[in-house]
Amino acid sequence: LPGDRLLQILGVAVLLAGAQGLFRRGPARVWTGLRIAPVFGAVSGLLGGMLGTSGPPLVVWAAGTGWEPPRIRATFQGVFLPMSLFAVLGHSLAGLWTAQTAATLLTGLPAIAMGTLLGNVLAERIPAARFQRLLYGSLLVLGAALLWPR
Description:
By secondary structure, the protein is mainly alpha-helical. The protein has helices spanning 3-23, 33-51, 55-63, 69-93, 99-123, 128-147. It is built from six helices and no strands. It is globular. The two termini are 17 Å apart.
């Protein structure tokens, strides 16, 4: 399938997961995080390699674990750092890193650092139930972004 079509399919799936979580009636269905994690990890890696968007499957997985917010955040940080490093290595080996790419990265680093610091401060003030709703809400935003025409 063309990349645009794959992004649309992913966008619909992520939107449905976010809507299901936000508008569900009754208790959340929680799966055993570590048993199903390899499936979501593989899908995330495939999507990251094919489309450069590895985050949505991991957010869907994390939302279903029932874990407390600090554990989810630590898991995300532990997963996204090596995944990003592998992506940079792969792009470098493919000759995709250019002076423009490096300049764009350097331009964005201050905003990334400020966002990270602000996120860490806010995370300590958000109750677990609200964090869960924000997680599902972020799925809606991610799904909509994937469907947004380019």
